[in-house]
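Sanity check

After download, print the first record. It should look like this:
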Amino acid sequence: MYITEKEIKPEAPYVELIIEGDPGDAWEGGINGRFYRISRGVPVRVPLSLAKLIYSNARVKVLSKSLYDDYKTESGKCLNSKKTRAKS
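Expected structure tokens:
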């Protein structure tokens, strides 16, 4: 069962943030056995611990995207070039 931003109980400290993305696509994550479903694209007020998790998740997404972008291009990326081949 997920807790939405409307059901989050008052805990201190809180932060207000906007999670990037399509408003119809909620962010989902969990801390200590509590699972959250938070709306994207609208201002929401969440506990600081949840905000840190959301930030970390976004950072990992950005970093991993930069690592695999070369492999997603139409021309592809050569994994077996002369420079990388082992000499026999």
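If your output differs, re-run the checksum step. Summary of this record's structure: The chain has a mean pLDDT of 77.
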